[in-house]
Amino acid sequence: MNIFQPIGAWALAWMQGAGHAALFFADLLRAVPASLRRFYLVVHQIHAIGNRSMLIIVASGVAVGFVLALQMYYALVTYGAAESLGLIVNLSLVRELGPVVTGLLFAGRAGTSLTAEIGLMKAGEQLAAMELMAVDPRQRVLAPRFIGGIVSMPLLAAMFSAVGILGAWIVAVGMIGVDGGNFWSIMQSGVDVWRDVGNGIVKSIVFGVICTAVALYQGYETDATPEGVAYATTRTVVISSLGILSMDFLLTALMFSTP
User: 108, 176, 178, 203 - which has most CB atoms within 10 Å?
Assistant: First the structure.
């Protein structure tokens, strides 16, 4: 029976942590309407979270487009289907690579920044000072960042896909010699706005909720020490990445299971 005692203790601790995180998320959602009345805070967070993440998103999108065009061309030309290169690249980006890679980059760049910022505010007792002044930190600090992350994520994913397609066009048409008309025409005729692009947007919104909520929770609940903030930023990347990959599988199974 001693074998099951640590397993049971771990399970109880995990359930307690999951319940606490769920209550935190519910409180965060209740604070969203009040934070919208201070819309300038939301705009500031969209700039801080989204605009400052553009460089890594654009650079990564172009690089992925370059590599994807090369790899797909070498695979398709074997079967005489090189004219479908634009379609394959577009579907790969808007359905999967755009939302997923952007979410992972978002967790590594913006998520860790949010966790460290909130953790340092807690370590400096700024959050406690707000509570003493009858200011709810969830409404004043957390909710604007939550909304900013949700708004920024789809925009960054769309930018990633757009520059990725542009990078693939540069390699396919400019370097390999694929016909530019075929590249664009087959892509336009084979991509459905609602089924492909729309589902990619839904994925990016869900990933934005996961990354931002995890980052804020880890920062708000971290130990007010340098070591606690460091561990919290690490947990943010790990949990957000696992959540993105898990939800990507579930959302893909739900969205594309039926023709």
Answer: 203
Token duo for residue 227: 């070591």
Domain-embedded: residue 15: no
| pTM > 0.85 | yes
CA distance 66 to 167: 5
**Per the structure, how many domains does the chain have?**
1
Q: Please indicate, yes or no, if residue 23 is contained in any of the structural domains.
A: no
138-189 pLDDT per residue, tens:
888 899 999 999 999 999 999 999 999 999 999 988 888 888 788 888 888 8
Whether residue 17 is contained in a domain is answered as: no
Taking the CA atoms of residue 230, residue 234, residue 237 and residue 241 in that order, the dihedral angle to the nearest 10 degrees is -170
Residue type, 246: S
- Strand blocks (E) in the chain: none
**Domain hosting residue 156, numbered range:** 38-255
Burial 9-20 (b: 16+ CB within 10 A, else e): eeeeeeeeeeee
Residue 5, in any domain of the structure: no
